[in-house]
Design goal:
By secondary structure, the protein is mostly helical. It has 2 helices and no strands. InterPro entries: Cyt_oxidase_maturation_cbb3.
Amino acid sequence: MDILYLLIPLSAVLVLLIVGIFGWALHRGQFDDVEREGSRILEGDPPAVDGDQSAATSPPEQSRTSAV
């Protein structure tokens, strides 16, 4: 019976924490466009943001001429 004095306030704090995190997610716009996020996985790779950030750069090739 004494454990209830610990578990009831602990569960109340947990519920308040969960409600707070959910409210924060709503405020930050996490649930604004759910259909767009569901169809985003079916699309191709997004375009590069900046030319400097492109991961598709290849190192410069060396010439294939050989000295004889």
